[in-house]
Specification:
homotetramer, mainly alpha, two-stranded antiparallel sheet, 10 helices, elongated
Chain lengths: 205, 205, 205, 205
């Protein structure tokens, strides 16, 4: 077993790159296009940039928080994190696909929403897997001073991620715009009043 | 509350990637073009590369300096930094748009300048937000040894960022080239004689 | 001689970027294409993304493990790592080339498999070179507490990499799909039951 | 004044990204092209990838070595490093331009060599600037235990960089291929027998 330093550095790197690559998904208008209409037409790209940036940012904050209580690593745990990062690094793809189909092609928009939402569900599930593995066998990868009570509080919070993202995704069957609003609202909810929501958990850090 | 180590690593990652992605905004001339005229025509791309690189670099230096006095983090503070980084990571986009419109299309150039300048204003405002949040409640995220006097000196300096960038941006209404020179001069001012300007602040590090 | 801290940071950066750039290899379908058939046609890109991501991830885990026993560096050792990283950073290229040729053009598929497999063989050889150099002269770059027995166990495991990747590559002469399955199986084998395989080695960390 | 930790992290990030972005300069052959001739025609891209990767790698190793004796930073010193990194991050551009013109268009090849060599000269000059600033005022940014003798040895070595790169660049006036061989030989010279060349300096680390 090793400590988690290099795992966190690597994860931070992937998070930082995936989040920064999002900007490459915003097309530079051609030089001969009028700039104002070109930018206006691209509003879904800007919208998607903000939502995905905040979403990856929130996930990074959560990953960060998780590792304030996880203190050790082993190769299996590292691989679970690699699989988690595989979906984080994938986010720019469904983000661009979704931005391209919004209000353009209903069928494609629905499928793009499923692709985007499915990626989020996968991330949320792997988040739980990271926690479950670290907390297993009486918390074999946790820092010693972390009390059992704290672990359960932590686990309870993450458990809501997969069904919530799943629900927001399925709302696309009503209309894809509902999911779009849902993803944005979920990101804003976490980004804005986050201190209130997390106050309890903060004491563990 | 946690220490700021991983927040700084993540921020450094986003800064480093955003600054390095700027080079992708310089088009490789096609193989059949004469290289000399092609490169000459692209001078705004080279110019914009230098200005944006120095600007992001200066912001990184300032962020770095800020964190010599900020010693703790919490999820809200992390999210404020994520929003700050959302604008840092966005810089390559307005940089390319601006480089493309310089001396080409007056209307587009004006709009591109507003987009570029607006991004800088947003960064400068968020810079103040980072400081304000860290220094709030009697400096609850600051390192203990930082004196109240120092905090006020720091705050006073950052306060000039938003109006200055706003002013340079609005000068585009006179002529966009004035803003272009303004952004370059501002970057050069900070990059070149920076030690003199900051000597006072240096003592806090 | 210096410690390995900055070498590991740099290596982690290259690993993290190379692994995250893989997503740029998945083409965004054009807006006018039907999304479902476009994504379905691109399955080799998704497949290649997963295999290469896991493969680079595994190599990162192994590099990480190696540096739990290597504690010192010198310029020659740093350059060996740079050459190793040159092949890691190259992986997105053969990954895209391979994904493009699968089931399309038999001749090209075979060559693309050799390119991909050759890159893996080179990485595996350099992995052994890193170890060999660090363990040479009675383990001059190893941490002092690492016993001679442990070193030999480590070396023995890495030795299988080059011939195994070479064998999987050459199986393309039977049919390129055999190599494709081989690379995927090899990645899955390491990714899934990794804890069992590595249990012995874990005790050294 | 602060310590150099975050400056090194940021520099390592820019080095790692610039070096990894080089792979994006190798064009993926179109699906309908024969793969073998397409790859063969692209040999200058592969060659340039190797030379630029080794060159940036060597510069990273040297930067790394330099910071084993530099222990403190200030904003001016940070900005000198930002300007240094501005040229490091630029390397992928002249690398691609050069790779595209080799044996294609004599005039363009000559200009591309000047662009590439000029970038290297700038990097070598800034390398000396970093050292000169750190060693100035009786070594005000150096670690205390570094002896004056060692500083001078260090300074002497770096001084050869700018004229050597300048010479290799100017050899393009004879024939651009001479410069091409020169850059490759210079990279190989540093990459291969580096331990011998640097043995003296190693004792300072």
């Amino acid at each position: 077993m090793t400590d988690t330093g290099r795992l966190e550095t690597f994860a931070d790197g992937v998070f930082a790159i995936a989040i920064t690559l999002l900007v490459l998904g915003i097309r530079i208008p051609d030089a001969h296009e009028g700039l104002a209409p070109a930018l206006a037409n691209q509003w879904p790209s800007f919208f998607a940039y903000v939502v995905s940036f905040l979403t990856i940012g929130i996930m990074w904050v959560q990953h960060h928080r998780l590792f304030t209580v996880i203190g050790r690593s082993n190769p299996t745990f590292a691989m679970i994190n690699v699989v988690f990062l595989m979906f984080i690094a994938f986010v720019p793809f469904p983000t661009q696909v979704l931005a391209q189909r919004v209000f353009v092609d209903r069928q494609g928009w629905l499928l793009a929403t499923f692709l985007y939402g499915g990626t989020m569900v996968a991330i949320a599930i792997l988040f739980n897997a990271i926690w479950a593995y670290a907390a297993a066998r009486n918390g074999h990868l946790l820092r010693e001073k972390v009390a059992i009570a704290v672990r359960e509080v932590g686990a309870r919070g993450y458990r809501f991620g997969p069904p919530l993202y799943g629900l927001i995704t399925l709302l696309a069957l009503v209309h894809p715009v509902v999911s779009l609003i849902g993803f944005a609202a979920f990101a804003a909810y976490w980004a804005l009043p986050i201190s209130g929501v997390l106050t309890g958990g903060d004491q563990t850090g």
